[in-house]
Amino acid sequence: MTVREFDTYRGIYSFSASLTCGFYDQAHFSKTFKERLGISPSEAYNSRMLQD
Predict the structure, then answer these.
(1) Residue 33: is it exposed, middle or buried by C-beta count within 10 angstroms (0-12/13-18/19+)?
(2) What is the mean pLDDT of residues 6-22?
């Protein structure tokens, strides 16, 4: 998923967006996210909140 595609789903809950993007469930999304980025989705969300 690209940043541009992610921006499209900004208003959708992350679970719904992950299903739309082809993940089987939230655990599948979270595991893939952490494998690729090295941090969990919640860690990414929390760090973004601190930057605002």
Answers:
(1) buried
(2) 68
